[in-house]
Amino acid sequence: MLFAYTTISILFLLAVFTPKKIAGIEIYSTFFFAYWLGITCDIIFDLTYHLYGYVAEGAQLTSVCFITVIYFSVNTLFLNSFPYNKSILAKIVYILAWSIFATIYESIAVNTAFFYYNGWKLWYSAVLYPIIFTSLVLNLLWVRKLLFRYINREQSSM
């Protein structure tokens, strides 16, 4: 559990104290998307099919707290430094780098008993991480589009 407490603390501090390039409303809304996506997957793969889990089988308050902090921190750090105005290649490399980081983190989490597998394989996660990180970017772009529409509508009504 030392691994979990240490890394989650570091990720959280980085997420909170890193200068932000994205707006607070974007962090807020994308965090809830990431949290919804993660919890939905966990309900299906962990609680329904028992393929993996955190700390011990079933739901625990400790796991919920860890998951919340991890999703907030990774989502904020990932989207804050995403190369929005760079080439497609730069975006792909960035997503792949974060996917490799997440896969390595998961591997260490499994080896330190913070995370366990019951039929799940690390390579499943390795395949899913690029999809997950891409969905975070697409969600942020959607949030920005909605905000842009809202701001334009409010300005035109003045």
UniProtKB/TrEMBL annotation:
The lineage of its organism: Bacteria, Bacillati, Bacillota, Bacilli, Bacillales. Keywords: Membrane, Transmembrane, Transmembrane helix. The chain crosses the membrane at residues 59-80, 92-116, 122-143. It comes from the Bacteria. This is CBO0543 family protein. The keyword Transmembrane helix applies.
